[in-house]
Batch of 2 targets.
Target 1
Amino acid sequence: MELTRRSFTAMTGGAALTLALAPGAAQAAAAAEPAAADGAPHTVAFDKYSMVIDGRRVVLWSGEIHPYRLPSPSLWRDVLQKLRANGYNAISIYVAWNYHSSAPGTYDFTGVRDLGLFLRMAAEAGLYVILRPGPYINAEVDGGGFPGWLTTTAGTARTADPTYLGHVDEWLTAVDAIARGHLYTNGQGTVVLYQLENEYAAHISDASGRDYLAHLYAKVRADGIDVPLFHNDKGRNGYWVPGSFPTGDESGRYLYAFDGYPSPSGNPPDWGYFGSGGAKGGSTASPQTPGFVAEFGGGWFDPWGGAEFGGKGYEESRRTRDAAYERRFYLTNLANGIKIHNVYMTFGGTSWGWLPAPVVYTSYDYGAAIDEARNATSKLTPMHQLGELVQSVPDFAMLDRAQDVAASDPRVRVYHLANPETGAHFYVLRNDTTAAVDCTLPLATPAGEFTAPVTVGARDATLLATGIRLGRRTLLHTTAQPMLQLTVGRQDIAVLTGRTGYPVEAAIACAEKPRVTVLDGDATTAYENGALTVRAGLSGLTRVLIEGGGSQTPLLLLLADDEASSRLWRHSTPSGPVLVRGPALSRTASLHGATIRLTGDTIEDCEVEIWAPRGIRQAAWNDRHLPLRSTRSGSLISRTDLPGVPQVPLPELTGWRHAPENPESAADFDDSDWTQATRTTSHSTTPVPAGQPVLFADDYGFHYGDVWYRGRFDDATAANTVSLSYSAGTQGLLMAWLDGEPLGTHRLPVPAKAQDTQGTWTATAAFAVPEALRTAAPHTLSVLVRRMAHEEDGGARDSHKAARGLTAAVVPGAPVTWRIKGATGTEDRVRGPLNAGGLYGERTGWHLPGFDDHAWASGSAPGRRQGVSWQRTTFALRVDEQVDASIGLHLDDDASRAYRVQIFLNGWNLGQYINDVGPQHTFVLPNGLLRTRGRNTLALAVLSDGTTEAGPAEVSLKLLGSAAGGVRVDPVSSPGL
Ligand code: GAL
């Protein structure tokens, strides 16, 4: 049946959507064209099955990536190209309000914060964008994305409180002004969906919640955002479905989405066609909008402190959510009708500077498909296979649940779906047991029922299809998962995939006996009753050329095991698709006369094979001529192998100089320009202690990083102890000095799970005052608080407003007056508000390139001393321009030593190492910040409690990955002194 305008309107009931579907859109055999910004107007709509973009059904196969977790714009392009090449057609991004705003009214979208540049690169890479600017995002960032200054404002955040909404509107005005210039609808970009808020469950049933969402909706529309809007419901509660709050816009431009982070050790949940439990578990939450998971676990974040504290390390996240997990869980999602599928995270990146929320350390690798060092992992392979499938098999975008069928072995769960227009059938087979299962399954095929023998791996899943087009021919059945079908030049190409060693059978309709040639690998074929059956054991790449048999156009059938399939790269050109095989990555392909120009990466030596439109006879690889010969597969292949990546030698880090710091601890330090702590009221959720001034750092404009206090009192005769209460986030600490003498250090405990359920991380440190200092003279108490991030505010309880810094101080018998010093976040416009805190060295530029350290002592040992010391060195790199080397800084030491290190590369704060907590030892140094062909400045700020020697004993550069190729990397501005 052709989908007509009338039948479509009847289906959706939505007047605004009648323009949406072009006739035949669901049947179109050609692969969907990638997203592009072409300056022309476009339509973005949806119905209950899928997004409908320019009248074509599109399944969005999306990966989450956070621009703010990769502070080097050139590398955005690298990751975006890697996603596109690996079958993703969309990305989803949060925009973190705090990253762009150091103060009310100040919004910065330049340099590493250039959101417009990021969105342009996404469009250039051919990716649709799901934009998620909050205002609240969670995302394991400080305050869940709320700027530090918001903690000092009146009104409850995440409600319809007018003061809060005033700030929100300012943010949305700023971010929407950028977003508006990158909408797909106006042809200026590829943004097709926009999220309001995130996991907003707190006020679902009260007016404040409804008014808040209604306000956000109206504001975003007033700002000119005309793509569909949605909210991300925490775990399919059926919250904020269409109609649950007023939009003043009932034309169906709002859809329902939810997220899911199920345990990988359990069985995948059903939440759509096969779900139960009404709105919560079933398909009824929002029957008129397509299944949409705005976030689905692609790994998991890791807490400070390693295994004994619940942390497992990112390799463990990657192991438990491996390729088989992806197939098992994501295929279940697809079986349940999900047509907008976003995996959180797909590239996690780095929570650099003071970005990490208390729950995480610097690395946000997440165990994602692309690791923090930008390396492809084996998790990309299933994503690549499924991404190409949903894009090149259009039948997939419109599926209904079909009649239940059972496999011969009940250990295999079967989901059966069918396209009501084309008659194609899809089967997801899932095995939740720990042994592979061989079974049979009755398939509905265009040639009648067929009993297919199938192997489903242990705790794995696969997808089978019948009745789909493979170019001009029809696939009757297959026991392997279809990956790709396309027409290149004079031939059709189809790819079926599976695990190495699995038997494959594929039957293709042929009106008469075709000519069949097995070009590569072992396969047998038989023709009977209008069907050509191909059988093979999956191993590498098996090629079967099918000619004639009722079609003028040859079909090249490629049976690819996982490894072989991961080396197949599809590109679109104005003259039609291109398929490249061989290299570790094929980034781009463009046609210039008879030449195809390819860019990409190699790791090992490899051949390059190209299927290109007619007339292409020559190729260039990364701008170098690539001699070719033609093959019987209808392709062109390199005459010699492309070279892999050469060795990347890295220098040792030597020439260290070091110096002690913390002059603030000395009795005679001049603090006359520090802020006097005289406030008596605060908007913090932390109560101000009776009779004491407000000491919370935020109230004095110091929102991130370390903060110093100096207190004066006149008489210490009664002061046998000093009690200092503070609130700092997990891993916070406080150290104190009286008249320059260290009183000691207090550390908040590593978060064993049961502790501090309030999440405020407060403690009172009581220090004994040495007898000799208990005099009736004036005294100075110096206190350094390493304050970690503000809490997130997942429960909409204003928990980001829990104080940070000192909260109360008691010196018996003596009132104390305080001055306070920290960083305002406006000091360094280039590196932004979250880069540096209030250490003396940070305030005076010790972390910056160009700081003159020649008078410092040589060597690196800060010794045993309470306080801060710094060490600095420079190093030069000479990485070949054609090589993308991903380099990290590795720190190691005896784990009993009590100290921590902030790492500054060319002035950029790339993370915090806590030697006796862990687990992170290696810190990614992103190229662009890192000068791979030039000199770099490394500065380490070491904070130690003086109970042990401080380190770090070992500091070295480590190669985390390398490839010949890469993208051009522009240096990121790194101003010095
Ligand atoms: C989700 C949330 C994300 C992130 C994720 C865990 O529930 O929406 O922002 O916090 O959990 O990584």
Note: The first strand starts at residue 44 and ends at 46.
Target 2
Amino acid sequence: MEEKIASLRDVLKEADRVAALTGAGISAESGVPTFRGDEGLWRNYRATDLATPQAFARDPELVWEFYNWRRELISKVTYNPAHRALVELERIVPGFTLITQNVDGLHLLAGSRNLIEIHGNLWKVRCTKCREITLDRSPDMGTSPECKLCGGLLRPHVVWFGESLDPDILQQAIATSKACQVMLVIGTSSVVQPAASLALEAKSGGAVVAEINLESTPHSPFMDFTLHGKAGEIVPKLVENWA
Ligand code: BJW
Ligand code: ZN
């Protein structure tokens, strides 16, 4: 493992366009539940009851209860050494871009700035009537929060199943993936599209792709590096002894 980490670090040192694609696993060590797996959110909650536009249309109060519970939980946790290591990588690599599927805001809190949040952000809300997007960090939004501008019902500014990603944001993520020389794929099960295909874009653009995950994923077979273990332990090692 240490050898693999050292050779990936050597590859990173040679690159000036590096991308990282993160998923829920990077925040697991901060105490944020992942979606899939034994401890995952979708084990106790059905995604179709909570994370689809149909669920919100049917029962907005239930969906808000779920998001308030997550707001409350995430408001009490903070970033971990893996988030910090990506901030460090942004500082040392000239063209570093972080693409995250996470909506928890922990990359921003840690200090990442060149960041593309492809599934939105839990701390933003969007009016279902006038579409205004606002930042609101209240841990409890109530179950029928209203827009201050028009009185419309607010919804979380996140991307649910069956919804399209913001086309500009998706384009930015695709362009970054196609152009990078190295992509680190950290803590994602690589099953949700179109996010998962970004690693394929990187690979077919000639990038070295590296997966950091507790376990294998459907994308492991085409990875140049697979590092099995905790993101909070492996990612910081990639930025150690850089000079
Ligand atoms: C660790 C660790 C540690 C743990 N260290 N590692 C093509 C084919 C098939 C289906 C589709 C397709 N195109 C579109 C679809 C449908 C759907 C989809 O992909 N379904 C699949 C599940 C089959 N996609 C969509 O609907 C997308 N929209 C779209 O494509 O629009 C166009 C369209 C419209 C209409 C019809 C068809 C197409 C939108 C997807 C939006 C996903 N939204 C969510 C919720 C966000 C809001 C919220 O959080 O509430 O995003 S779902 C959830 O999954 C969340 C995540 O961002 C996303 C990915 O999950 P992630 O991050 O990978 O987490 P996990 O839990 O799955 O994995 C964690 C990993 O970490 C594991 O591997 C662990 O081992 C690892 N781990 N601890 C390192 N310490
Ligand atoms: Zn409004």
Note: The longest helix spans residues 60-75.
